[in-house]
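Q: Convert this sequence to structure tokens.
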Amino acid sequence: MFYLLAGEKAEVERATDMHGFKLKAITEHHIILEVKNLENKNLYEISLFNPRLRGFWRREYIFSKDKREAAGFAQQFKENYHIDIKKAFKIDGYRVEAVEKDRIILTRQA
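A:
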């Protein structure tokens, strides 16, 4: 959702992915992302902070069997960023309801 002032012009493009996951469907209550999680691993959120800018930079979401494996993936960012790793309970403010082998189900706020 976004707001425009009267007289403003904007171009809108339909989103096809969310953090690298293909957007499969949006229903009244859920957002469904198409994924390949054949080993049925947990979803982890890696937050990257730039110490020179003193602020948040971005988030990466990965499938991992545990936090240690996620930390191994995050090592590639360690040289330039401060890293925070945790199990993902939300993506962009939407609660993660289920992580399955072929999809992630997010709950939309009412």
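The mean pLDDT is 88.
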